[in-house]
Amino acid sequence: MAGRADSTVLAGARVVLPTGTVENGRVIVEGDRIAGSATEDARTLDLTGYWVVPGFVDMHNHGGGGASFTSGTVDEVLTGIRTHRAHGTTTLVASTVTGEMDFLAHRAGILSELVQQGDLAGIHFEGPFISPCRKGAHSEGLLRDPDPAEVRKLMDAARGTAKMFTLATELPGGIESVRLLAEHGVIAAIGHTDATYEQTVEAIDAGATVATHLFNAMPGLGHRAPGPIAALLEDERVTVELINDGTHLHPAALELAYRHAGAARVALITDAMDAAGFGDGRYQLGPLAVDVKDGVARLVEGDSIAGSTLTLDTAFRRSVTVDRIPVGDVVQSISANPAQLLGVYDKVGSLEPGKDADLVVLDEDFVLKGVMRKGEWIIEPGA
Ligand SMILES: [Zn+2]
């Protein structure tokens, strides 16, 4: 057909589509999109023996490659974004950690420009509206109760690019803040919370739709006090984030969430900090010092786990090879579900004609061998 850009046909691979896995499938890339048919002079790339899956979508990520999304310069933030892209994350939301309100508003301005130019898919504010009882790696002195006026201040500073707020919804102002976010199409996520079961149900009824790293930074599941975990797992309106790095969750906890919520309600995230894709050493997470040893990040003061050093290619491989989650379910949890939550499933999150050519090539052991974003190889298989 005249006027069409040359296309490339990725042939011979197992291609994971929303409808199932196609053996010896084809993905046609034309320009920056996936196409339904190839031009006559299309180039063919033989990917026999590989899997082709949609690019990963990470909705909770604080940094990587030695760079922090909360404090880094624009160049450093871009380094973090590129680090995660090289691990298959083609759509990324930048998460901040607790800081002063003015500082967070300032960061929202910087990050929003990267959203506008297409490098980020949005901003996630994790803190300061969280519980001192479940603060994790957030500065206790800077925590505050959720206040709709302050939530709005950060939303305004982000100029329409705020995608998610993590809130301890049981605190004063929590439910009003959930309602405000829901009204504006911003995800209200329940996390770093000390809520009871009943309080969690109330927040879901008010419009909260995500559990921030389920199990982590919230009360455990008790038989008389089922707490937030039972409420979040049982409600069809909620998607639960899971950090599958082998440190944050026991495999049985991951399996419990997959079985109970189903793959359609799980979002695999990294919650990565600067050391992801970089290495062990001393780092800063907002104002707090963190030591990373053997890939596990802990606060210097108090020993709390301080984010992860996970990348989503590792989470994918672990979910399939260690936890034995079916490949199609992992694809749904790592690409489609977060894309749907973020409101970008019309562009990314599955390998369908018309969408961005964002894809990951994995070998038979689920090791990443290629990444394409908007039709360009970030890592070319075999290169
Ligand atoms: Zn986080």
TrEMBL record:
<feature type="binding site">
    <location>
        <position position="192"/>
    </location>
    <ligand>
        <name>Zn(2+)</name>
    </ligand>
</feature>
<comment type="similarity">
    <text>Belongs to the metallo-dependent hydrolases superfamily. NagA family.</text>
</comment>
<dbReference type="GO" id="GO:0046872">
    <property type="term" value="F:metal ion binding"/>
</dbReference>
<keyword id="KW-0378">Hydrolase</keyword>
<dbReference type="InterPro" id="IPR011059">
    <property type="entry name" value="Metal-dep_hydrolase_composite"/>
</dbReference>
<feature type="binding site">
    <location>
        <begin position="305"/>
        <end position="307"/>
    </location>
    <ligand>
        <name>substrate</name>
    </ligand>
</feature>
<feature type="binding site">
    <location>
        <begin position="216"/>
        <end position="217"/>
    </location>
    <ligand>
        <name>substrate</name>
    </ligand>
</feature>
<dbReference type="InterPro" id="IPR003764">
    <property type="entry name" value="GlcNAc_6-P_deAcase"/>
</dbReference>
<dbReference type="GO" id="GO:0008448">
    <property type="term" value="F:N-acetylglucosamine-6-phosphate deacetylase activity"/>
</dbReference>
<feature type="binding site">
    <location>
        <position position="137"/>
    </location>
    <ligand>
        <name>substrate</name>
    </ligand>
</feature>
<protein>
    <recommendedName>
        <fullName>N-acetylglucosamine-6-phosphate deacetylase</fullName>
        <ecNumber>3.5.1.25</ecNumber>
    </recommendedName>
</protein>
<feature type="binding site">
    <location>
        <position position="224"/>
    </location>
    <ligand>
        <name>substrate</name>
    </ligand>
</feature>
<keyword id="KW-0119">Carbohydrate metabolism</keyword>
<feature type="active site" description="Proton donor/acceptor">
    <location>
        <position position="271"/>
    </location>
</feature>
<keyword id="KW-0479">Metal-binding</keyword>
<feature type="binding site">
    <location>
        <position position="248"/>
    </location>
    <ligand>
        <name>substrate</name>
    </ligand>
</feature>
<dbReference type="InterPro" id="IPR006680">
    <property type="entry name" value="Amidohydro-rel"/>
</dbReference>
<feature type="binding site">
    <location>
        <position position="126"/>
    </location>
    <ligand>
        <name>Zn(2+)</name>
    </ligand>
</feature>
<dbReference type="GO" id="GO:0006046">
    <property type="term" value="P:N-acetylglucosamine catabolic process"/>
</dbReference>
<feature type="domain" description="Amidohydrolase-related">
    <location>
        <begin position="51"/>
        <end position="377"/>
    </location>
</feature>
<dbReference type="InterPro" id="IPR032466">
    <property type="entry name" value="Metal_Hydrolase"/>
</dbReference>
<feature type="binding site">
    <location>
        <position position="213"/>
    </location>
    <ligand>
        <name>Zn(2+)</name>
    </ligand>
</feature>
<comment type="pathway">
    <text>Amino-sugar metabolism; N-acetylneuraminate degradation; D-fructose 6-phosphate from N-acetylneuraminate: step 4/5.</text>
</comment>
<dbReference type="Pfam" id="PF01979">
    <property type="entry name" value="Amidohydro_1"/>
</dbReference>
